[in-house]
Design goal:
The chain has 276 residues and is α/β, with parallel strands linked by helices. Helix content is 34%, strand content 14%. The protein is built from 9 helices and 9 strands. The strands form 2 sheets. A 7-stranded parallel sheet has the order 3-2-1-4-5-6-9, sandwiched between helices. Strands 7-8 form a two-stranded parallel ribbon. Helix 3 links the parallel strand 4 and strand 5. The radius of gyration is 19 Å and the shape is globular. The chain starts with 6 loop residues before the first strand and ends in a 14-residue tail after the last helix. It binds nicotinamide-adenine-dinucleotide.
């Protein structure tokens, strides 16, 4: 039996965590899973620990038992700032700081497309494009990316920040023709990030090989993520007439973050919205 410590997955009770757990166990032999809520049925070779990421002592204890971290836990949509601060900002700080203390130097961090959501949909982005968060949630992901940069430069960590688009079994809306990440591609991306010899700070866009994609992973080719699916296979189901019937002035159409951008949008300097 291997004496190697398991990989830790935070957010293990979430949508993506539940799908990933058996597959990560198959690939890596064992898993230490954690979430603030109950994780349901535990698999063979899996240990589940309930833990609030905002509790630094509990996170320290958790991280002591692992060799690498897939940090997917936290609030995954827009919420009042104090909730985001505790779960995502303080929570991510606790994970990185515990990792430093325990010599765990590889972290795969679930960032989000909402770190760059206010770029327009006619803009192509790569790893050096400036951040343009579209929510407090997006700001918390930018914080996580900046924390990753600090721990890479100061402590020699290898960190992948996954700017995940829309991780879904199938794309269902027009925006997802650009942002879709299939579950098999998500899995392949995580495995690549855990097995690449070195990551440094890798800003990786989490999207399938979508014909209408906005994001270029050319600068992080060393990670070895080669997505296989393409949302275009669903285009005729999503747009049977072939026509994009969304209002082109709507911030949800114009900006990459979609409805996260239009939610609460009241920019008085915008000549296009609301329509006059
Ligand atoms: N699903 C997507 O398309 C997508 C897109 C971009 C980014 N992401 C990111 O990927 C990760 C996983 O996404 P998901 O769709 O599975 O989200 P999810 O909301 O289903 O899962 C997140 C999990 O984190 C847990 N959590 C929340 N607060 C916590 C706390 N204080 N302590 C410990 N656990 C806590 C929740 O209980 C939940 O089980 C998230 O970080 C999300 O922001 C997902």
């Amino acid at each position: 039996m291997s004496t190697e410590k398991p990989i830790l997955l935070t957010g293990a009770a979430g949508t993506l965590g539940r799908w990933l757990r058996p597959r990560l166990i198959d690939r890596f032999g064992s898993l230490l899973s954690s979430d603030i809520v109950d994780g349901g049925e535990t698999h063979a070779n899996e240990t589940f620990v309930r833990c609030d990421l905002a509790d630094g002592g509990a996170v320290d204890h958790l991280v002591a038992g692992c060799r690498a971290i897939i940090h997917f836990g936290g609030i995954s949509n827009e919420k009042p700032f104090m909730q985001i601060m505790n779960a995502n900002i303080l929570g991510t700080y606790n994970v990185f700081e515990a990792a430093r203390r325990h010599g765990v130097r590889r972290i795969v961090f679930a960032s989000s497309n909402h770190a760059i959501g206010f770029h327009t949909t006619d803009t192509k982005l790569d790893a050096l494009s400036p951040v343009r968060p579209d929510t407090f949630y997006g700001v918390s992901k930018v914080f996580g990316e900046n924390l990753a940069s600090l721990y890479v430069d100061k402590h020699g960590f290898d960190v992948a920040c996954l700017r995940i688009g829309s991780a879904l079994p199938e794309p269902k809306v027009i925006r997802a023709l650009s942002t879709w990440l299939s579950y098999p591609d998500l899995h392949q991306m995580i495995v690549a990030c855990l097995t690449a010899p070195r990551l440094g700070l890798a800003i990786v866009y989490g999207a399938s090989a979508n014909t209408r994609g906005w994001w270029d992973n050319g600068m992080v080719a060393h990670v070895g993520f080669n997505p296989q699916q393409n949302a275009e296979a669903y285009a005729s189901d999503i747009m049977p007439t072939g026509v994009d019937d969304r209002d082109p002035r709507d911030p949800a159409t114009r900006f990459q973050g979609g409805p996260f951008c239009s939610d609460g949008y009241d920019n008085p300097h915008d000549p296009d919205w609301p329509p006059r």
